[in-house]
Design brief:
This protein is of the alpha/beta class. It has two domains: 97 residues, Elongation Factor Tu (Ef-tu), domain 3 (Beta Barrel); 133 residues, Rossmann fold. The protein contains nine helices and 17 strands. The strands form four sheets. A seven-stranded mixed β-sheet has the order 12-11-8-7-13-14-17, sandwiched between helices. Strands 1-2-5-4-3-6 form a six-stranded antiparallel beta barrel. It has a two-stranded antiparallel ribbon with strand order 9-10. The longest helix is centred in the last third of the chain and has 14 residues. The chain is globular. The protein starts with a helix and ends with a helix. The N terminus is likely disordered.
Amino acid sequence: MPGQASRAHRQTIFVEDAEILSHRAHPGEQHILRLQAPRCAAAALPGQFAHVTVASRLPLRRPISIMRVDPDQGWVELLYKAVGEGTRLLAKRSPGELLNIMGPIGQSFTVTQARPLLIGGGVGMPPMIFLAESLRNSGRQPFVILGSEVPFPFQPAPSRIMIPGLGANVIASMPLLEDWDIPCRLASQQDFPGTHQGYVTDLARQWLDTLDDSGLAETGLYACGPHPMLEAVVQVARDYGLPVQVSLEEYMACGVGGCAGCTVPVETAEGLKMKRVCVDGPVFDGYTVF
């Protein structure tokens, strides 16, 4: 029952008034919001999201993926794009103001492979950055591919980390990942300098083609982005016989499983079932949803 599922999450989802520490605007109406939210920061895992009250006049919160956390300093960082009334109102909020947030919410990614391939598209980039940061001291070596059709919400820089199988002109990377010694490449169809001119899945296939059977056995795919991109990522996983987890983007109302307004069909051992993206996801086995 939805009510029972909601109650099961009451000890893991926190509600707090979070002070805006910084709010940076980037091209393409993208914004990075850093909030002082110590309870959320202490509990958050890659793939989870926060449900944010954007303005007092709008009763419905907006779900926003968590991009980074610092449990010691107590902050969480969110990346969003201003596309509707709610997020446009959020874009006007200033440092020092308070936002009420619920979080962290949802199922996180579970990584067991030594060689995870992380793919993020558009506002699906934040969970991949969060996951990459969590993996950097785990002994695993992720490769991160990020795609965008608007300017990236950071200044791309030439990578010093060489990646076999990719063209010499595909050299742009996210500086933060470079600082963490995590290999990264960017893809776009907008002719941004140093990026692959095409889809993120093109880069994924080029990299996977460099791996032998033992390398593929150590590889899994993890992705977040628009549904067509996720469907294409799952097809890549299917073609190479790899496990794949995807984080779905869906409109939400309550965000905690009570309204069942964000359900999607998911294959289970008992057949096709309707699952709620907010609490049953947003992370699912990719084969069960595509």
